[in-house]
Amino acid sequence: MATEFVDKITLNITKDNGVLVGELTRQTVMQISKKSIKQIITQQSSVIDLQQVTRIDTAGLAWLFYLLEQANSSRCQLSFSNIPEKLNKLISLSGVEGFLPLNT
Q1: 22, 29, 49, 101: which has the fewest C-beta neighbours closer than 10 Å?
Q2: What pLDDT was estimated at residue 2?
Q3: DSSP letter string, 1-53
Q4: Quick one: CA dihedral 67, 69, 71, 76, positive or negative?
Protein backbone atom coordinates (compact mmCIF):
# COMPACT_ATOMS: atom_id res chain seq x y z
CA MET A 1 0.00 0.00 0.00
CA ALA A 2 1.58 3.25 -1.15
CA THR A 3 1.59 6.28 1.07
CA GLU A 4 0.39 9.44 -0.63
CA PHE A 5 2.00 12.69 0.49
CA VAL A 6 -0.16 15.76 0.25
CA ASP A 7 1.68 19.01 -0.37
CA LYS A 8 0.48 21.87 1.80
CA ILE A 9 0.81 25.61 2.01
CA THR A 10 -0.66 27.95 4.59
CA LEU A 11 -0.72 31.71 4.88
CA ASN A 12 -0.57 32.59 8.56
CA ILE A 13 -1.60 36.14 9.39
CA THR A 14 0.07 38.09 12.19
CA LYS A 15 -1.20 41.63 12.59
CA ASP A 16 -0.79 43.14 9.10
CA ASN A 17 1.84 40.67 7.92
CA GLY A 18 1.76 37.14 6.63
CA VAL A 19 3.97 34.08 6.76
CA LEU A 20 3.80 31.48 4.00
CA VAL A 21 4.58 28.01 5.31
CA GLY A 22 5.07 24.92 3.13
CA GLU A 23 5.30 24.24 -0.58
CA LEU A 24 4.12 26.96 -2.96
CA THR A 25 3.51 24.94 -6.13
CA ARG A 26 0.86 24.35 -8.76
CA GLN A 27 -0.57 21.65 -6.49
CA THR A 28 -0.91 23.97 -3.49
CA VAL A 29 -1.63 27.56 -4.56
CA MET A 30 -5.39 26.99 -4.55
CA GLN A 31 -5.19 25.91 -0.87
CA ILE A 32 -4.56 29.47 0.26
CA SER A 33 -7.86 30.84 1.45
CA LYS A 34 -9.38 33.93 -0.11
CA LYS A 35 -10.10 35.13 3.43
CA SER A 36 -6.36 35.10 4.26
CA ILE A 37 -5.56 36.93 1.04
CA LYS A 38 -8.21 39.55 1.80
CA GLN A 39 -6.83 40.07 5.31
CA ILE A 40 -3.42 40.84 3.83
CA ILE A 41 -4.48 43.09 0.95
CA THR A 42 -6.91 45.22 2.96
CA GLN A 43 -4.02 46.63 5.01
CA GLN A 44 -2.25 49.83 4.02
CA SER A 45 0.97 47.86 3.79
CA SER A 46 1.87 44.22 4.34
CA VAL A 47 4.96 42.05 4.27
CA ILE A 48 4.84 38.37 3.37
CA ASP A 49 7.62 36.34 4.97
CA LEU A 50 8.76 33.53 2.66
CA GLN A 51 11.42 31.99 4.92
CA GLN A 52 9.34 28.88 5.63
CA VAL A 53 8.55 28.14 1.98
CA THR A 54 10.20 24.76 1.44
CA ARG A 55 9.56 24.46 -2.30
CA ILE A 56 8.38 26.77 -5.06
CA ASP A 57 7.76 26.37 -8.79
CA THR A 58 6.71 28.72 -11.57
CA ALA A 59 3.05 28.49 -10.51
CA GLY A 60 4.09 29.60 -7.03
CA LEU A 61 6.03 32.51 -8.49
CA ALA A 62 3.01 33.43 -10.62
CA TRP A 63 0.83 33.30 -7.49
CA LEU A 64 3.14 35.84 -5.79
CA PHE A 65 2.57 38.16 -8.78
CA TYR A 66 -1.19 37.51 -8.52
CA LEU A 67 -1.09 38.48 -4.83
CA LEU A 68 0.88 41.61 -5.70
CA GLU A 69 -1.71 42.54 -8.34
CA GLN A 70 -4.55 42.03 -5.84
CA ALA A 71 -2.74 44.19 -3.28
CA ASN A 72 -2.12 46.95 -5.83
CA SER A 73 -5.82 46.92 -6.77
CA SER A 74 -6.67 47.37 -3.07
CA ARG A 75 -4.05 50.12 -2.64
CA CYS A 76 -1.99 47.94 -0.32
CA GLN A 77 1.78 48.30 -0.44
CA LEU A 78 2.90 44.65 -0.46
CA SER A 79 6.44 43.35 -0.20
CA PHE A 80 8.14 40.02 0.41
CA SER A 81 10.88 39.19 2.91
CA ASN A 82 13.27 36.32 3.67
CA ILE A 83 13.42 35.13 0.08
CA PRO A 84 14.62 31.51 -0.18
CA GLU A 85 17.63 30.93 -2.44
CA LYS A 86 15.54 28.66 -4.70
CA LEU A 87 13.09 31.49 -5.28
CA ASN A 88 15.93 33.89 -6.11
CA LYS A 89 17.16 31.40 -8.71
CA LEU A 90 13.66 30.98 -10.15
CA ILE A 91 13.23 34.76 -10.36
CA SER A 92 16.55 35.02 -12.19
CA LEU A 93 15.79 32.14 -14.57
CA SER A 94 12.36 33.63 -15.31
CA GLY A 95 13.82 37.04 -16.10
CA VAL A 96 11.64 38.89 -13.61
CA GLU A 97 14.30 40.46 -11.38
CA GLY A 98 13.08 43.73 -9.96
CA PHE A 99 9.38 43.06 -10.51
CA LEU A 100 8.63 41.73 -7.01
CA PRO A 101 9.16 44.19 -4.16
CA LEU A 102 11.69 42.35 -1.99
CA ASN A 103 12.81 43.34 1.51
CA THR A 104 16.45 42.36 1.84
Answers
A1: 101
A2: 45
A3: -PPPP---EEEEEETTEEEEEEEESTTTGGGS-HHHHHHHHTSSEEEEEEEEE
A4: positive
